[in-house]
Amino acid sequence: LNDVSIGACSCYEVGDPRNECSQSKSCDDLEADLSNVPEIRCACNGDNDPRRGITCAVSRMCSYNDLISTPCLCSPQYNSGNCTCTEEYHNDQQCICDQSQESGVYDLTSCRSTKICIGDNIPIGCTPLCAVDSNQIVELESCFCNQESQPINCRCPTDSSQLIGIPTDRCNCRQIYDPRDENLCKFQLKGVILIVNTSNVNPLRFTFYGERFQQGLLSVLIVELRNKTEEEIKLEKDNNKQFEEKYNTKKSIQTYSTNYNRNHKSNENQQNRLFESLTSSKFLKPFDRYLPNIIQNQEEIIRDKDGYIIWPPENAIQLPIFIDDVQIESEQNATFSMNDITWLDTRKKWYGMLISSDNETYYGANGNEGEAVIIDVVVEEGEQFVNFNKNQTSEGIVDPPVIEKPVSFPFWLKLLIIILASSSRVSSSSFVIIFGKL
């Protein structure tokens, strides 16, 4: 303004630097009204500057029971009423959007969109309430979900008190104050999937989802629900066509025979190496070289008369099973794995799961205490865990190879080895090793 004559531009009441405008009040004058004074004439001046939130950014944080005598930013101590909205605290419809658009200020467009329209685009940039059928699809966050209308892509209300009647598949539960706690948003288990793959190190992998999971505050209880009915088993057999090809009788026996031959050959090699070491001693007579089979680590697959694997084994662990080594992926998802499969008998039984945050009270379906959620089992690998129709060949079921039981050395032979060891002053440790193999 210094180069502009007062004839072209008359003096301003506040902040006019021209010599001819000596009556203009200083920007620092407490009586000066800065309301309509641009920052180029008077820089923002203190928290009580009337331009705060308009052309000057609000910088003061609201305190507990703040009277808002000067504009302040919504804070943990005060975030309702006429405080200035921030990115973290803008849920209250009464908070005021900062229009200064200065750096670090909550974006004006985003702030305005959190306001529910009370008329046609009133206030400016507001978002209307949804008013279409809940099964319809709307533009992403173009309207607020509400008790009467929750279409797909609707925007969840910023005010938690307005969540009543809105399902959690539209608006997730909120950790702090959710009025749906009594029916939808309490600690609960919604679904469980168990992937079974006996070729993995940990053959059982559980994935489950629900509400309000917290790391270190979640434990699991696995229970048996009931036996499967004959109708359910028959239906599973009819639906599991893929397992008929994978685990048919002939293929199963061939697989068993292949594994048997491979393992038997490995056993023979181990025996031969041990025999060579043992019989190479000059203190053993030639007839002692014909030693019995002393290595037998073959695991036999036991099948019933129809060719199915007999399961569970006699040493199966008993239910219920308690698990506290759970990996929390989010408030709604968690996983854990198990390497013991002996308890699982999905051919005959249904299983369920419950969760607890205190290891005392266990919740399940709909957040109800003691109401277990059924475990959905998906078998990727594991013949003993699926119901399928066995394809019997015309030759019938071939008996698996007969496995010789381990034969121990007779007492006199053990005694002979000990005597020979003592008489030859050979290091006892080598014979202890041999003797331990007997």
Question: Keywords, please?
Answer:
438 residues; alpha+beta; 4 domains; 17% helix; disordered C terminus
Report on the structure:
It is a single chain. It contains 6 helices and 8 strands. The protein is 17% helix and 13% strand. It has 4 domains: 1-40, no CATH class; 44-106, no CATH class; 127-184, no CATH class; 186-407, no CATH class. It starts with 107 loop residues before the first helix and ends with a helix. The radius of gyration is 40 Å and the shape is elongated.
Overall pLDDT confidence: 81
Low-confidence stretches: 251-264, 277-299, 393-397, 425-438
Write the element-wise H/E pattern from the N-terminal end onward.
Answer: HEEEHHHEEEEEHH
Percentage of β-strand residues = 5-15%
Rg on CA atoms, Å: 40 Å
Number of helices: 6
End-to-end C-alpha gap: 109 Å
Q: SS-based structural class? A: alpha+beta
Instruction: Tell how many strands the DSSP assignment holds.
Output: 8
